[in-house]
Design goal:
- The chain has 139 residues and is of the alpha+beta class.
- Helices cover 42% and strands 20% of the residues.
- It has four helices and five strands, in the order αβββαβααβ.
- It has a five-stranded mixed beta sheet, sandwiched between helices.
Length: 139
């Protein structure tokens, strides 16, 4: 990989981290950070991580940046990897919400997550602390 390619990759990673941090701040502001894990590893064999996860609710949240500029999640090989990951989540009983840059920035993502919780009949805003060695707790 050339120095130019490495620089471009580093810039994309920094932008993605900033986007995830924005969603984390929105989740905190909405009171949705309890029980939320970032970079949650749900499959040790494949080393798959989820951008955000509520493991006690089996809710996975993925943020895909660069969707309108042919970013990584918009290209064939990466899409195939995403499909494999999404299918593995489904087989494991997880529910998945996926958002792009615009949805995070305009608040659609946090409103959708809040709606998901509000529509669960068995949901309680009282989260029990979740113990895991994967990821970091609280958005």
């Amino acid at each position: 990989m050339s120095a130019r390619e490495q620089w471009a990759r580093a810039e994309r990673q920094a932008a993605h981290r900033a986007l995830e941090e924005l969603l984390a701040m929105q989740l905190r502001a909405a009171g949705l950070h309890h029980g939320c894990w970032r970079e949650y590893r749900f499959d040790d064999e494949r080393r798959w991580r989820l951008d955000f996860a509520y493991p006690d609710r089996l809710l996975a949240i993925e943020v895909h940046g660069g969707t309108f500029i042919q970013g990584g999640h918009s290209r064939g090989a990466r899409q195939r990897q995403d499909f494999d990951k999404q299918n593995a989540l489904a087989f494991a009983g997880w529910r998945l919400l996926v958002f792009d840059t615009t949805m995070v920035r305009d608040g659609t993502a946090v409103r959708t997550i809040e709606r998901w919780f509000n529509e669960r009949k068995d949901f309680s805003w009282e989260f029990l602390p979740y113990k895991s060695k994967a990821g970091t707790q609280s958005a």
